[in-house]
């Protein structure tokens, strides 16, 4: 009887541990990011004044909001690298690193993406664009109007090509088809919450 009780407790502990690990590493990142209390919504089409970092950009601007410590951000690095390679001659790509817990250098970030593109550590850029989590994509047209703000894909691994939302937004802007329409999975923030970029 005692053996059965110990075995039952052991299996219960194992199940709870597996459930906890699943929550920590997978399920919580599939839930929408909670909207902060003092969040100021930025409407699509709004003119975004980013200051010196973008003052002389005469092409569309793509900003990748990135946290190297966020699992969701790490998983989409290859996808973002592909976008930079594919569209880098038509769009000015920039990376904004949002992480208060660890310092990173520009070289470290550029190496992760295998791209020599501008890297910023300015949290105010996220606020100006209405970004509340990482990873998030922001696409501004040539006049710096907000064309797209949202997710890269409906899967955190960016494996579903039918839901490459950020790429669809780029294609739409470059082909001048007008603003694309996306479902809630594209526009509702998922991933690691700001300001600490943890869930």
What would you note in describing this structure?
There is one protein chain. The chain is an alpha/beta fold and 199 residues long. The protein has 7 helices and 7 strands; from the N terminus they run αβααβαβαβββααβ. The chain has helices spanning 2-25, 71-75, 77-87, 106-113, 123-129, 165-175, 184-187; strands at 61-66, 92-97, 119-120, 133-134, 136-140, 146-150, 192-193. The strands form 2 sheets. Strands 3-2-1-5-6 form a 5-stranded mixed β-sheet, with helices on both faces. A two-stranded antiparallel sheet has the order 4-7. A hairpin with a 5-residue loop joins strand 5 (136-140) and strand 6 (146-150). The longest helix is centred in the N-terminal third of the chain and has 24 residues, at 2-25. The radius of gyration is 19 Å and the shape is globular. The protein starts with a helix and ends in a 6-residue tail after the last strand. Mean pLDDT is 82; it is low at 16-29.
